Amino acid sequence: MIKRVVGTLFAALLAGSVFAAPAAQAVQADFTGIVALSNCSGSVVRPPQAKDTDPALVMSNGHCVKLMGANEVIRNQASSRTFTLLSGPNGASLGTLRASKIAYATMKDTDVSFYQLTQTYAQIQSRFGARALQLSTTHPTQGTAIQVVSGYWKTIYSCNIDGFVYQLKESSWTWKDSVRYTSACQTIGGTSGSPVLDGTGKVVAINNTGNEDGGRCTLNNPCEVSQTGQVTVRQGINYAQEIYNISACIGTGNQFTLTLPGCTLPR
Predict the structure, then answer these.
(1) Dist. CA 30–CA 88, nearest whole Å
(2) pTM (2 decimals)?
(3) Which of 6, 14, 76, 210 is buried most deeply by CB count within 10 Å?
(4) For the chain, domain boundaries
């Protein structure tokens, strides 16, 4: 399922208590830097080149903005969306953050959105005592212990990276080099946009979908397509999108500049 909270395009709202699956953990993740959206999860993130005085960024899924067209890209679109900033082991609310714009969003090749906030990293640190999560700039590794931290549900899922998918197809969307979780990460609606953390505490991917009913390449039922065109369906398995290449697209002042060397995000 495209894992935002179920709306009019989906059958029913998923509800109830959800607990982290028992698994060996590389780090004890908490809700530092995590945010809750009205329909999804997200996080305050920082590329390695960002300055304390730069406007902060919130990362979520492209489909948490809307169900975008297969080739659609949004850039520098005004937005006043709000986010609840969380903290600590139980996801206590620190206050509200507000966007000034959607800096970048797409569901082409990946499923990601970045909101630019009205506050800088330094201002968030001063007011809330909260730090941003660091974006990794290296490709994740198979077998790595990971934690998926959902701000919407205030839940942390623990599992491992099972492998990578050449193409992940769901309805009209195709995502490239996706992360496949081991079965312990049973993410649900509302976990969309959750950061995936590795043992260093860095963000290595962004949670976005899973195969609910065993369907083949349909809405809520993504399928895996190999380089030779072989299609595999894994019912009950969930997926994330890599983010290691995104920092190369962020320039001075935390602005998305898609013409920078090494930037491969769709334009």
Answers:
(1) 6
(2) 0.92
(3) 210
(4) 34-135, 145-242
